[in-house]
Each structure stands twice: as C-alpha cells, then as structure tokens.
Design brief:
This protein is α/β, with parallel strands linked by helices and 381 residues long. Helix content is 35%, strand content 26%. The chain contains 9 helices and 16 strands. The strands form 4 sheets. It has a 6-stranded mixed beta sheet, sandwiched between helices. Strands 10-11-9-12 form a 4-stranded antiparallel beta sheet, with helices on one face. A 3-stranded antiparallel beta sheet has the order 4-5-16. A hairpin with a 5-residue loop joins strand 1 and strand 2. Helix 1 packs antiparallel against helix 3, helix 3 crosses helix 9 and helix 7 crosses helix 9. It is elongated.
Length: 381
C-alpha cells in the first residue's frame, strides 16, 4: 500500500492532498484533451493502493477501494472548459482552471476513498474519473452503458461546504434552420432574408416557452431559453439564404421534455404555414431529463449526517439551474444519488476560479464520513 494512504489528520497527508489537486490543475484538460491527466490519475490510483485500476474506451479512469457491499460510486469529471488559467496559491486559496468545476471535488473523492482502503468495514467505493462532462457527456454515457454495480452514487460538483445539491434542470439542445430565396440586399424585404426570419421564429418560440409553467417558486422551476449560436449570411450584397440557430432550453422537473419538443414542432409547423417563401426545420440535438432528489434519499441523508458530524450545521439543500451527469445516471439507472463538493458554484467557468484550501480539505472528511454513513444505512436495511 502507498505511504500516502494514511490518516488525513496527518499533516503529510494534507500536503499530499493539496499537491494532488495542484498537479491536476497544472494539467490543462478541456473536453477532448484529458489524456495526460487521465494517465496521471491512473498512476496515482495505483500508487495509493486502489484495486481494479483501469481506463475504459473513452478515457474514463476507475479504481476501487474496500470490499463487499454496499457498492458506492464516487463520480467526478476531469475535463474543464477553456481557457487555461495560471495555477497559484495565495492567501489560503488555490487558483486554476477546474479549481471549482470540478477538479477539487474529484481530488477530494480520490483522497477520501484512499482512506477507505485501510478500513476493515464492508463496502466498496469505486472512484470514477470521467471525461467530457463539459462536452457531449461521452464519459457518463459510457459508464451508464457498462451497467455498473452500484447501490449508491455521490457526484463531485461544487455545492459549497455545507450544501447538498438535490436538483438539476433538464436540458434540450435544438438546431433551428430557416431557408429562403436570396435576392439583392437592397430589396430590404424580410421574406427573402433567412436571418431575419429565423429571429422571428426564435421570438415566437421564446414567447411561448416563457408562458410554460410560470412559477413563483424561483428560477429553478421555470423554463428558460437562450440562443447559444447563430450562423447565416456572409455580409455581402445578397440576403442570407440560410440561417441556423442553436437554441439552449433548460427544463424544470414540473415539465416533460417531450411536451416541450412537441410545442416547438407545432410552432415551426405554423411558421411554415405563414411564410410561403421560406422553409423552417428543427433538429433536437440532445435531450436530458431534469432530476430532483428527495431529501429522504439515503445518499442525501448520508451526506447531511456527514456534514453535521464533520462541520456542524446548518445544511442547505440546493437546486442548480444547469444540468449535470447526475441527470443521466438517475434517469437511466435509477441509482440513489446526490451531489456534493467544495467550491463556490458561482466561480465555475469564470476567469477567477479558485477554491479555499481549508474547504477542500474539509470536503475530504465529509466524503469519507459519508462512506461510513452509507455503509451503516445499508447494513440496517
């Protein structure tokens, strides 16, 4: 067993935990470029004494600690958004791309699981270092396709030290395409301008979606939509013949993704009826269902108890406006799950991304104690 695998109360172990995260931050790993970091983590898992260390066909890295049931998945991701940020330590903070989203949760789960290796209790923790969470999600999709043996799952994403994330909105990505006959730009008529027609179509869609399930409960319970990209025209003397709009829609648990897509189809169909010289089409690029976990879920209760025992209260339950890998796992496999991790979620993807080192170290204790809580619940049935 590696000399790293001793009590986190030991100052040298804390030094290792900080160094692990620092090394991870120095390895730039935007979606699709995780190979260097994956290789490094594979070596660290072996060094720490994990069993069944492997890398799958898409680049996910796995390692197991402990034995027997329950089987607990610790799931994090090792990819980040761009650009790279200089790594530095200052005033108790560690700065760098991924310091919050989500290399500090990933590193904390690795160290917490490594402590479980020494435990004589029954229970297996499988650390899953996934790729492409910020991209198309091929990491979590490949994990799901493998049908992992699991009783519980904890996802590592920034929630704040005393918060447990219990909800994520769903996500629909749509490509809207509008085509029409081009004419000289000086004609100035909308029916010959695909860009202007596409904007008209978008405004009709946005207006309709804003009426869907209006809620006084807050933004999490509302449908929101945005243009994520637009392609059309070349800036010349001819009206744009074609325009593609890439639309991002976020969906609360109260709304079915299927109902929204049917609404979009009806709007596009009506648009075509009203615009004889144009043709609009719609392609659903991806669809992810929302997820809302009950506070009585065993994983939520385990994390809550762990936070209370480790740090004291109060514990808050938060719902995020975005979408995470937890959506896919829960909707596909039904494994009890929740999300927890150090870091301020508001710093995710910013140019000032940092994590408090003390928070990072405390999160390791929370993850470790959550293992004990889940194993205890499992034995009690």
């Amino acid at each position: 067993m590696s000399s790293h695998a001793h009590s986190l109360n030991d100052s040298s172990d804390e030094e290792y935990a900080v160094k692990l995260l620092e090394n991870m931050l120095k390895m730039y790993s935007p979606s699709g470029q995780e190979a260097e970091l994956a290789s490094y983590l594979k070596g660290e898992l072996v060094s720490l004494g994990f069993k069944e260390v492997s890398v799958d066909s898409v680049g996910n890295v796995f390692g197991e600690a402990g034995r027997g049931r329950p089987h607990i998945l610790f799931i994090g991701h090792i990819d980040t958004v761009s650009p790279f940020l200089p790594v530095k330590k200052s005033e108790g903070r560690l700065y760098g791309r991924g310091a919050v989203d989500a290399k500090s949760p990933m590193a904390a789960m690795i160290v917490a699981a490594s402590r479980w290796i020494k435990s004589h209790d029954h229970g297996t923790v499988r650390v899953c270092c996934l790729v492409d969470e910020e991209g198309g999600g091929k990491g979590i999709k490949n994990l799901i396709e493998s049908s992992p043996e699991a009783d519980y799952a904890i996802f590592g994403e920034p929630s704040g030290l005393r918060n447990v994330t219990v909800g994520y909105r769903g996500h629909i990505g749509v490509k809207l395409s509008v085509e029409t006959e081009p004419v000289h730009i000086s004609v100035g008529r909308k029916e010959f301008n695909a860009v202007e027609l596409a904007i008209d179509l978008w405004e009709k869609i946005r207006e309709k979606l804003s009426e869907t399930k209006r809620s006084e409960k807050g933004e999490f319970h509302k449908v929101t939509s945005s243009i994520a990209g637009i392609e059309g025209g070349d800036g010349g003397n001819v009206t744009p013949r074609k325009c593609d709009l890439y639309v991002d829609i976020r969906v609360p648990p109260e709304v079915r993704c299927e109902d929204l897509t049917e609404t979009l189809k009806r709007i596009v169909s009506k648009f075509n009826e009203e615009n004889a010289k144009a043709s609009a089409s719609m392609n659903v690029r991806f669809k992810v269902n929302p997820v809302l976990i009950s506070k009585s879920s065993p994983v939520v209760r385990a994390l809550t108890r762990s936070i209370l025992k480790t740090l004291g209260g109060p514990v808050k339950f938060i719902k995020k406006l975005g979408t995470g890998d937890m959506n896919l796992l829960v909707s596909s496999l039904g494994i009890p799950a929740a999300t927890y991790g150090p870091g301020d979620p508001k710093l995710s993807h910013t140019l000032n991304e940092y994590v408090e080192v003390e928070d990072y170290l405390n999160s390791i204790r929370v993850y470790h104690n959550a293992i004990f809580e889940l194993c205890s619940m499992y034995r009690k049935g």
